[in-house]
């Protein structure tokens, strides 16, 4: 009887039945520890619909897109090849030596908004909203929305209410990760116009070989509201190490030679609308600032 | 670091290298290499900074893979030829594998990818130990093996000089520049190893002296990227004026010491009927010379418009030892007249 059943199954279905079985294997970790993948790139953002497609159903073959992709990546590779002759990272050495300010992000057109990712606690079931658009005169970006600290009703989340904007990881040819090298600079310079709310600036360095995956260097951004623009200069020595929002004991200064992303987070437990307008984000070298690290690096459990 | 621990680790480093030097059995040689790796790992990670830990991890993985390959190849050689002697290797397969394993240990292209990142994560002193002392033991093994795979060694050498020159062009971090310089110099050494091992040793020794000087100069300046070198003219003008000579010696320009190994190697390659190899090696050395010149330009030939903060660096004396730098700088700049002695001794 079972043999006849087997022969009636088509080969594809047989594969899917094996696949389904693998998915249904019980997890060995305890329920209180949520399963999260350790390898970077496998993370599914909460709030995104779970994809139940089998691997061979996810293939999306499009010839013209493939050609465009090839052209784009080879153009980037060629640029990388020829940039070397000009100088390190495509800039002549004189520019590296004389550079005191560099604007990294500015918002001069809709394509600049593509470099940023927004998220809020809507992903975990909360009710905050965040939107990004170009400001008036298309010279600035306008981040606005509503913060709501009502926790999602899933039985385990106690606090909620955050909104964040994070820059996308820069990519080189063939989608390799590229890092910002800010070693010639020591200060972050922003021109913002906020509404008096305190924001958190998060710098994420490359954490694949060092650090834990969500190690982020943070500092505060206090906006003053009002119609006047605010120039904020934060030395990189002030950034402290956090992991998933918790300040770590083992502090060290941020190494600026492999910075990946910058982000702005609002989580000040004050429900209501918020607005933040950013003109540009740049880095500068402040020769008057000689501090290496703002926090004491002391030895815990010293030998007596 | 606790001085007892530091002395144990440095002793371990010495012991490992000496064990490899003294061994004629592959297992003892492998043991020496492993002792070296294990002894330097705590030295690398001593600052507990994530990047230092990353450097130690990457170094350990690369070296462990190389040691495993070495062990496998020597076991295969024992299986195929019945003996473990280092100097009696005859079968081509283990010879190739061991050459590749030692190339990974030392950082020759195309097995060089770990070296820039590892050096970048270390402080300058540990980087110096990695660039100089850690090359001795694998080198002694490479010198002792009677290699019959001439093509592979030439390819390794040319690839290293090319990658060392090419990779260094994109760097502004000094430690990565020194890593690519190390790759390029090792390429030169490997090129001539099968024709004249003593020339290879001469190249290694001159490279050690030149790298020593370079690392010590950067250490005195406490500089880790090109921009921080730009203010050294105000702090130490004499060192700033001598450093171009050190860097040009690394680049292999006459009448400095660095020219000696390059000249003799090119001469030997031409005598061995490899003029094209010699030409390619000389051309790729130009790439390295370009980034050394760039360092000279940034440091000495330009006066940075930005002055240092305050006057403290002039007033406060530096507590760093300068005798090693003085010795090695003199040797880096002035040893070319010893060329006739080197030629008689090395090219017999």
TrEMBL record, chain A:
Coiled-coil annotated spans: none
Biological-process GO terms, alphabetical: mitochondrial electron transport, NADH to ubiquinone; mitochondrial respiratory chain complex I assembly
UniProt keyword terms in alphabetical order: Chaperone, Mitochondrion
Chief localisation class: mitochondrion
Record Pfam families: CIA30
Subcellular location: Mitochondrion
Secretion signal span: none
SUPFAM superfamilies attached to this UniProt entry: Galactose-binding domain-like
Record's protein name: Complex I intermediate-associated protein 30, mitochondrial
Organism: Amphiprion percula (Orange clownfish)
TrEMBL record, chain B:
Residue spans crossing the bilayer: 60-80, 92-115, 151-170, 177-195, 201-221, 233-253, 273-293
Reactions performed catalytically: a ubiquinone + NADH + 5 H(+)(in) = a ubiquinol + NAD(+) + 4 H(+)(out)
One BP term from GO: mitochondrial electron transport, NADH to ubiquinone
Residues covered by the NADH dehydrogenase subunit 2 C-terminal domain: 289-341
An example Gene Ontology molecular-function term: NADH dehydrogenase (ubiquinone) activity
Entry keywords, A to Z: Electron transport, Membrane, Mitochondrion, Mitochondrion inner membrane, NAD, Respiratory chain, Translocase, Transmembrane, Transmembrane helix, Transport, Ubiquinone
Protein function: Core subunit of the mitochondrial membrane respiratory chain NADH dehydrogenase (Complex I) which catalyzes electron transfer from NADH through the respiratory chain, using ubiquinone as an electron acceptor. Essential for the catalytic activity and assembly of complex I.
Family: Belongs to the complex I subunit 2 family.
Protein name in the entry: NADH-ubiquinone oxidoreductase chain 2
Organism: Amphiprion percula (Orange clownfish)
Designated gene of the protein: ND2
């Amino acid at each position: 009887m079972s043999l006849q059943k087997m022969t009636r199954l088509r080969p594809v279905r047989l594969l899917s039945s094996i696949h389904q079985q693998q998915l249904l294997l019980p997890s060995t970790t305890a329920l209180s520890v949520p399963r999260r993948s350790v390898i970077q790139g496998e993370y599914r953002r909460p709030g995104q619909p779970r994809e139940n497609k089998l691997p061979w159903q996810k293939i999306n073959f499009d010839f013209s897109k493939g050609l465009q992709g090839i052209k784009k990546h080879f153009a980037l590779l060629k640029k990388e090849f020829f940039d070397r002759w000009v100088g390190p990272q495509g800039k002549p050495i004189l520019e590296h030596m004389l550079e005191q300010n560099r604007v990294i992000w500015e918002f001069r057109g809709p394509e600049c908004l593509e470099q940023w990712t927004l998220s809020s606690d809507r992903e975990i079931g909360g009710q905050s909203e965040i939107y990004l658009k170009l400001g008036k005169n298309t010279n600035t970006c306008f981040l606005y929305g509503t913060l709501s600290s009502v926790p999602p009703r899933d039985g385990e989340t106690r606090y909620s209410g955050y909104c964040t904007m994070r820059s996308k990881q820069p990519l080189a040819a063939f989608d390799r990760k590229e890092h910002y090298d800010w070693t010639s600079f020591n200060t972050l310079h922003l021109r913002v116009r906020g509404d008096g709310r305190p924001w958190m600036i998060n710098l994420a360095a490359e954490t694949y070989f060092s650090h834990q995956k969500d190690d982020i260097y943070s500092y505060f951004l206090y906006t003053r509201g009002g119609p006047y623009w605010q120039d904020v200069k934060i030395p990189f020595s002030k950034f402290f190490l956090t992991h998933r929002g918790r300040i770590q004991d083992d502090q060290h200064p941020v190494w600026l030679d492999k910075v990946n992303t910058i982000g702005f987070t609002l989580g000040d437990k004050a429900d209501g609308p918020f607005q933040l307008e950013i003109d540009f984000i740049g880095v500068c070298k402040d020769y008057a600032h000689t501090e290496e690290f703002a926090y004491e690096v002391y030895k815990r459990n010293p030998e007596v | 670091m606790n001085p007892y621990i530091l002395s144990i680790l440095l002793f371990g480093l010495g012991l490992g290298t000496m064990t490899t030097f003294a061994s004629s059995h592959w297992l003892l040689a492998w043991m020496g290499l492993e002792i070296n790796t294990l002894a330097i790992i705590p030295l690398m990670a001593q600052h507990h900074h994530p990047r230092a830990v990353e450097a130690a991890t990457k170094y350990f993985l690369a070296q462990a893979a190389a040691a495993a390959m070495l062990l496998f190849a020597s076991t295969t050689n024992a299986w195929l030829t019945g003996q473990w002697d280092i100097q009696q290797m005859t079968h081509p397969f283990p010879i190739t594998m061991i050459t590749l394993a030692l190339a990974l240990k030392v950082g020759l292209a195309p097995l060089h990818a770990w070296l820039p990142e590892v050096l970048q994560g270390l402080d300058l002193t540990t980087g110096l130990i990695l660039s100089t002392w850690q090359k001795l033991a694998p080198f002694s093994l490479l010198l002792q093996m009677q290699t019959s795979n001439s093509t592979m060694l030439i390819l390794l050498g040319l690839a290293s000089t090319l990658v060392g020159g090419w990779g260094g062009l994109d760097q502004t971090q000094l430690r990565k520049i020194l890593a690519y310089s190390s790759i390029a110099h090792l390429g030169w050494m490997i090129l001539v190893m099968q024709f004249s091992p003593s020339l290879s040793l001469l190249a290694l020794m001159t490279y050690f002296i030149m790298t020593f000087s370079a690392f010590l100069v950067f250490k005195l300046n406490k500089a880790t990227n090109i921009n921080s070198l730009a203010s050294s003219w105000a702090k130490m003008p004499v060192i700033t004026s001598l450093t171009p000579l050190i860097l040009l010696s690394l680049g292999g320009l006459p009448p400095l010491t660095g020219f000696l190994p390059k000249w003799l190697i090119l001469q030997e390659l031409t005598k061995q009927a490899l003029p094209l190899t010699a030409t390619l090696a000389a051309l790729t050395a130009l790439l390295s010379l370009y980034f050394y010149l760039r360092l000279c330009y940034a440091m000495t030939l330009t006066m940075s418009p930005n002055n240092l903060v305050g006057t403290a660096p002039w007033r406060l004396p530096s507590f760093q030892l300068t005798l090693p730098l003085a010795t090695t700088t003199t040797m880096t700049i002035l040893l070319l007249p010893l060329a006739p002695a080197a030629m008689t001794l090395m090219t017999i």
